[in-house]
């Protein structure tokens, strides 16, 4: 996993609520057996017409918007547990998703992919979406070590929460497998007293 | 201190807790399928790691498989390659595979319970969000991503924060025509699609206890549709009777020991929940969804809401536009093009019996295409043994071979753009059943009546 520390970037707005992982990456694109290449089909049916021509009104096709940060409506990533959704966002080039609420499985998958799910209040989210709409070049500064999101143009900084262990993993590029494999002596000892499996 | 059912099971599986509040949680059973496992196997191979406990992994091919001519090689090359990859990996690592052609093949959340692999008190995971289904037996079961699939393969454990607890009680008797599916669609319509995020839900109350295991599985299955990490129901005599005698159920002395333990699995008096809701069964009507998330449900005789909060208006109107519906509209009389009966939510023998009992001696409407996809080979065989296949055929329903099918349209089973499908599955997301498809979620009984009538009706006027 790649390390994440600080990011300066404009953002792409997607002001819709309850964006489910079927929209992020439709099931028919889940047939690959590797992790790469899902970015081409990110938001496929919102991004392209059935004849594969781009839908100009969709944010990812709008030349006004660019950047490594996606700002989306609340309850982002609900539905299917497919980690391919996080891979698709990452493969496309996003490194941070800002929303006022994330679905649990998506949040975990994003952290395991190196994509930072950054939760802000409903009010801050509304202000961000409106401001990006007004000024697509609005720069956001995400700093993981200090757990802050800064909007220099506003002179404001917001703090965000993240599990301390996952924060360390992301900063250092570690994942859970290394940690868990190192727990084997404790796991084997635990198995010996597991009495409920018949 | 009195503990909840969930906490009893979770506590029993904590190998150790680490600083910052995460637990190393031991996983008893790991179910895998072809779509979310290949990258996990590759991850282990890339790190030169073996599988820690391959005997605790059970595999099946379900998401991608055709539902016609399963005895022939899969035509679609990408699907075939994914299914072949699963077979290859299972052979390489010594994992029990119930693949295509196996008499125990089926949807992962259907075969676990029917084989007796799903038991009270276990922790179970799968790279699939509907793993919560197994919670119907009083297990802590939940969906995980592929990175976590690799973690469980490597260590039989996951690193997790303990979720909050929620209890949802449904009390009293259900009205005629109201089933488990209506209960859960009702609950989700009340809480919304993110209403239980961060929580593990215990379903309780007399209406839940009165349900069969199939009904309980339908309820727990859809926990994720309100954002819950999982859902579970305390095991009781109904649970034990279902498990007893199944291929992987404990036998003899082991059964007695298991039963003794399972009977301790309930929420103690005075245990506290972070959130509690209580509903009256009598308030629940046959339900249907009108929108593009499972929280957008109404009684079948109801109206699409006219008013929504301003902040939600854009998403709401986008959803109605996709569905070709208007604010304030009634769905009664709406013509339907397809009926899909299947998925890990409603493809069990009880669901097929419900449909067969209704359509016996009737015929589907001429313009409706009605497809029934059994959850497993065992369900299919049972349906044939009971003569259900003949009843369905006489009514013009097509009985297919097992798989996830048109629930997520990864195989050929797709609903064409713009067409309306009443489906017994779990998600009505845009494009879920194929690009442009319009899904209305409902119970198997509502689906059967809709197929016969060809349009949405007040089903309580059409009950046998």
From TrEMBL, chain A:
A Gene Ontology molecular function term of the record:
3-isopropylmalate dehydratase activity
**What catalytic reaction does the record list?**
(2R,3S)-3-isopropylmalate = (2S)-2-isopropylmalate
Q: Read off the Pfam families from this record.
A: Aconitase_C
Which top-rank group of organisms is this from? Answer: Bacteria
A GO BP entry: L-leucine biosynthetic process
Q: Which residues form the Aconitase A/isopropylmalate dehydratase small subunit swivel domain?
A: 1-122
E.C. number: 4.2.1.33
Pathway named in the protein's UniProt entry: Amino-acid biosynthesis; L-leucine biosynthesis; L-leucine from 3-methyl-2-oxobutanoate: step 2/4
The alphabetical list of record keywords is: Amino-acid biosynthesis, Branched-chain amino acid biosynthesis, Leucine biosynthesis, Lyase
Q: Might you report a single GO cellular component term?
A: 3-isopropylmalate dehydratase complex
Tell me, in a sentence or two, what this protein's role is: Catalyzes the isomerization between 2-isopropylmalate and 3-isopropylmalate, via the formation of 2-isopropylmaleate.
Oligomeric state and partners?
Heterodimer of LeuC and LeuD.
Q: What protein name does the entry list?
A: 3-isopropylmalate dehydratase small subunit
Q: Can you name the source organism?
A: Hymenobacter polaris
Automatic annotation (TrEMBL), chain B:
Recorded GO molecular functions are: 3-isopropylmalate dehydratase activity; 4 iron, 4 sulfur cluster binding; metal ion binding
Aconitase/3-isopropylmalate dehydratase large subunit alpha/beta/alpha domain: which residues?
Answer: 7-454
The reaction(s) catalysed by this protein are: (2R,3S)-3-isopropylmalate = (2S)-2-isopropylmalate
Q: Name one GO biological process term.
A: L-leucine biosynthetic process
Q: What is its EC number?
A: 4.2.1.33
Q: Where, by residue number, does [4Fe-4S] cluster bind?
A: 344, 404, 407
UniProt xrefs under CDD domains? IPMI
Can you tell me where the transmembrane regions are? none
- Alphabetically ordered keywords of this record: 4Fe-4S, Amino-acid biosynthesis, Branched-chain amino acid biosynthesis, Iron, Iron-sulfur, Leucine biosynthesis, Lyase, Metal-binding
Quote the record's cofactor note.
Answer: Binds 1 [4Fe-4S] cluster per subunit.
Q: Which residues form a coiled coil?
A: none
Q: In which pathway does it act?
A: Amino-acid biosynthesis; L-leucine biosynthesis; L-leucine from 3-methyl-2-oxobutanoate: step 2/4
| Family indicated by similarity | Belongs to the aconitase/IPM isomerase family. LeuC type 1 subfamily.
On assembly, the entry states: Heterodimer of LeuC and LeuD.
Please give the HAMAP family that the UniProt record associates with this protein: LeuC_type1 (MF_01026)
- What's the stated role of this polypeptide? Catalyzes the isomerization between 2-isopropylmalate and 3-isopropylmalate, via the formation of 2-isopropylmaleate.
Protein's UniProt name: 3-isopropylmalate dehydratase large subunit
Native species: Hymenobacter polaris
What taxonomic ancestry is recorded?
Bacteria, Pseudomonadati, Bacteroidota, Cytophagia, Cytophagales
């Amino acid at each position: 996993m790649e390390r994440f520390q600080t990011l300066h970037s404009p953002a792409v707005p997607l002001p819709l609520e309850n964006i489910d992982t079927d929209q992020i990456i439709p099931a028919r694109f889940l047939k690959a057996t590797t992790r790469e290449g899902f970015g081409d089909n990110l938001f496929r049916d919102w991004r392209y017409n059935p004849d594969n021509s781009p839908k100009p009104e969709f944010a990812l096709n709008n030349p006004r918007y660019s950047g490594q940060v996606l700002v989306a409506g609340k309850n982002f990533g609900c539905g299917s547990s497919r980690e391919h959704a996080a891979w698709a966002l990452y493969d496309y080039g996003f490194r941070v998703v800002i929303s006022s609420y994330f679905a649990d499985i998506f949040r975990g998958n994003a952290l395991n992919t190196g994509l930072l799910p950054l939760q802000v209040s409903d009010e801050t989210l509304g202000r961000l979406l409106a401001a990006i709409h007004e000024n697509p070049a609005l720069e956001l500064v995400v700093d993981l070590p200090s757990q802050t999101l800064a909007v220099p143009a506003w002179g404001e900084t917001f703090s965000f929460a993240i599990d301390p262990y996952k924060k360390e993993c992301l900063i250092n590029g570690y994942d859970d497998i290394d940690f868990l494999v190192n727990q084997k002596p404790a796991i084997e000892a635990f198995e010996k007293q597991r009495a409920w499996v018949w | 201190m009195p503990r909840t059912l969930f906490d009893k099971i979770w506590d029993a599986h904590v190998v150790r807790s680490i600083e910052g509040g995460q637990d190393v949680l031991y996983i008893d059973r790991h179910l895998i399928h072809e779509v979310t496992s290949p990258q996990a196997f590759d991850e282990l191979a890339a790190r030169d790691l073996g599988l820690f406990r391959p005997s605790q992994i059970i595999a099946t091919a379900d998401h991608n498989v055709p539902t016609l001519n399963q005895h022939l090689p899969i035509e679609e090359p990408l699907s075939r390659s994914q299914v072949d990859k699963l077979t290859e990996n299972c052979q390489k690592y010594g994992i029990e595979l119930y693949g295509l052609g196996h008499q125990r093949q089926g949807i992962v959340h259907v075969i676990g319970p029917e084989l007796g692999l799903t038991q009270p008190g276990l922790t179970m995971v799968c790279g699939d969000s509907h793993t919560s289904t197994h919670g119907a037996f009083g297990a802590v079961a939940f969906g995980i991503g592929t990175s976590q699939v690799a973690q469980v393969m490597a260590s039989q454990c996951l690193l997790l924060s303990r979720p909050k607890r929620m209890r949802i009680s449904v009390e009293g008797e259900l009205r005629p025509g109201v089933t488990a599916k209506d209960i859960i669609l009702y609950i989700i319509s009340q809480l919304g699609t993110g209403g239980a995020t961060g929580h593990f839900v215990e379903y309780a109350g007399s209406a839940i206890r009165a349900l069969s295991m199939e009904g309980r599985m339908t309820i727990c299955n859809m926990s994720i549709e309100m954002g819950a990490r999982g859902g579970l129901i305390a095991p009781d005599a109904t649970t034990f009777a279902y498990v007893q005698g199944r291929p992987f159920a404990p036998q003899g002395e082991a059964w007695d020991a298991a039963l003794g333990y399972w009977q301790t699995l309930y929420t103690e008096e005075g245990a506290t929940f972070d959130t509690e809701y209580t509903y009256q069964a009598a308030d629940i009507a046959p339900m249907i969804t009108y929108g593009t998330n499972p929280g957008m449900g109404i009684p079948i005789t109801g109206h699409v809401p006219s008013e929504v909060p301003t902040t939600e208006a854009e998403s709401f109107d986008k959803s109605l536009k996709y569905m070709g519906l208007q604010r304030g509209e009634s769905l009664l009389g709406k013509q339907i093009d397809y009926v899909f009966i299947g998925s890990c939510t409603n493809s069990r023998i009880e669901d097929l019996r419900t449909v067969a009992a209704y359509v016996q001696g009737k015929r589907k409407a001429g313009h409706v295409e009605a497809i029934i996809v059994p959850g497993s080979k065992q369900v299919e065989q049972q349906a044939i043994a009971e003569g259900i296949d003949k009843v369905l055929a006489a009514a013009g329903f097509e009985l297919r071979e097992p798989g996830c099918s048109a629930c997520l349209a990864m195989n050929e089973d797709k609903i064409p753009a713009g067409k309306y499908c009443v489906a017994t599955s779990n998600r009505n997301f845009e494009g879920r059943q194929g690009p442009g498809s319009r899904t209305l979620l409902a119970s198997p009984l509502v689906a059967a009546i809709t197929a016969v009538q060809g349009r949405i009706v007040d089903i309580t006027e059409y009950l046998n």
